[in-house]
Amino acid sequence: MRIPLSWLREWVDVPATGDATADADHVHAALVKVGLEEEGVHGGALTGPIVVGEVLDFVEEPQSNGKTIRWCQVRTGTTADGEPEVRGIVCGARNFMIGDLVVVTLPGAVLPGPFPIAARKTYGHVSDGMIASARELGLGDEHDGILRLATLGIEAEPGTDAIALLGLDDLAVEVNVTPDRGYTLSIRGIAREYSHSTGAGFRDPAKALEVGEGAGFSVIVDDRAPIRGRRGCDVFVTRVVRGIDATRPTPRWMVQRLQLAGIRSISLPVDITNYVMLELGQPIHAYDLQRLQGGITVRRALPGETLTTLDDQTRTLDAEDLLITDESGPIGIAGVMGGASSEVHDGTTDVLIEAATFDPVSIARSARRHKLPSEASKRFARGVDPLVAAPAAQRVVDLLVELAGGTVDALGSEWIEAKRPESIALAEGYVDRLIGVDYSLDEVTDSLTAIGCRLKPEGEGWLVEPPSWRPDLVDAPSLAEEVARIVGYDRIPSELPVAPPGRGLTRAQRVRRGVGAALAAAGLTEVLAYPFVRSADNALMGGDDVAQTRVANALDAEQAMLRVSLLPGLAAIAHRNRSRGLTDLALFEIGHVVLPEQGRTYGVDAVPFGAARPSEAALDELERSIPHQPWYVGALFVGDRRGRGIGQAAEESGIADALDAAHVVASVAGVTLRVETGQHPALHPGRTAALYVGDEPVGVAGELLPAVAEERDLPRRVGVLELDLDRLVALGSGEVAARELATFPAATQDLSLVVPVEVPAGAVREAVVEGAGPLLEHAELVDDYRGQGLEPGTKSLTLALRFRAADRTLTAAEATEAKNAGLAVAAERFGATLRA
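The chain above was modelled as a monomer; its predicted structure follows.
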């Protein structure tokens, strides 16, 4: 909200020190004290000397470029000897005559831009200054020629300071208004807040008006479909002014204030409605009375209705939209934007003024639905004082009569069904306990009275009726906050609260954090991908029949599905990094995936409204409306795990890295993974591992299909891993005990077994480990041979075995015995034989 200081001074006693910048800083400081946020200062980009000049004579001189300039003699004051001070000035405009009073910017002046003025040679003359246009002075957008003071009705002596004469020395301070304090989106509200901060005298502009009444104009409020029981309109006041001249220029003072407040001047009737909106906080709409058909009805939109708004856009209306209609149909979206059919134009003579109060929720939704943010909807969405509608309508009527030459008509209406604010019980001492400050009774009552509340003693406290312009005051805590704000936040001590004892992290939280730390320590980089993906990506990762959840208000229509897998996001991040030259990547993400049940509909039609806690039934319904969202951990490996070195070839990443990462995760979760050959629609059929804990499937590891990798502009070999972290937490102990360091030497032996080709190497290793018993410390597959020397349909698997005892040095015989025990189990299960 921008507040011109001259306008603010009309309604509150702001001291004028003669230094506009200092005054602006003072106002900012006062408003910050009561909780408003300082944004900036506007205006003041123009400095003198800028004076009134009288055109004494000029000569028109055609130029070689086809342009005709005027070499002017302009009187700009009086010399020290009392003689007229005459300056020669080159001017390209031709809309002035000899004897006209104009605005002359002298050398040393600076115009908005900044545009410094200096004496300079041009068109064969030395121009000692410049005759300025309205736009160059920041008075408007018109640039049809230079500014003639006669058009503004101004008479002044040459040499008079034009900055003060035209009010160009005014500044506007800007503050940020939070959504709960919509009443400060007006000069009235800001003046009241300045008064609260400084104690300066405040004069309510709404009470300075003699409010008349109108009757006979039909207004019907027919809100048959209120939203959540909230009626769309509580107040609807209309007044009529006839015989206006809509082509009259807007007075200079009004244009200047509107521009300082950030609103462009359009036409006199529109400028007046905007001026009153800024002054009183009540949005006003003006209709051409001759274009209306019958009376006005306020109602919700009907199916299929459309409206062409003032921006010449035809909009399809929603059943929740609150409309202003006449007998022809919709003529405006209430509180958002009027319709083109009833727009005030240059030929308008009779005007119907509307001042209404609409439901904030309804207006906010309509503005967002139609992408039509406006100054009016911004105020209605934050709440408008229902008691200011009639004074605001009267203010518009008065200005139309004064400035547009109109005549007040008795036609009009008043439909007012606004309820008085509900009283709030405030116990004595409650404010002290909540804020932590010892306030006196006078401080509490004086603060609440100052903001407009009415207090009635009741028991050990008061019944407090909030003012009509403060819809945010709904309970005792909000009243306590007002006391703290008005008395001063500096009274609140700065004390750190004592943190209550807690139970620490849950086991699932500890495991998730441990997994992240372990993967990072293993050399992977944690990333965070967008949870929105294409439907095709979900189908690829989960199968064509996978259930998917569509986002109702997706940022990108192409990626409107919630992910069922982390892998598409990891692939997108890998592609983005490779496009920037980072080719060797090891990435991981820990995050939610969304796994809805097939055929089930999620989401609720109505979210519980209000500040009260929803019922248990409502909470249960909300919980059921959310699909299952387990924690997953995913990893992706692309490029080289180890780069090329001297005498050493590069090692490409792949499934082995994915399996290593899977075992890292499993160790943190306290589980042992079982690896089997698996299948996955996005993974290479010969390089896919299904991961189990016992017989429970928990994830998959492997390499992307080359076609899938190529589609994402990735190399043909991309290792990936995805594990259901919630399942690992449920299946694991969550406690990982560190093993004691071995103090006795190890005994190593190799075991080469011949088994059928179809037998998984992992199953053979498990059999050997099970049979070898506790002496076997480690078993690793080091060779898988198929070829000459073996029977067709068989393969040779070589396991490197390490044996160790905790209490003694093993003998070769003990190690061999344990190895043979492992061989026996493998032979029993798979027919394994020793390779000759």
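Residues 443 and 717 are 74 Å apart (CA to CA).
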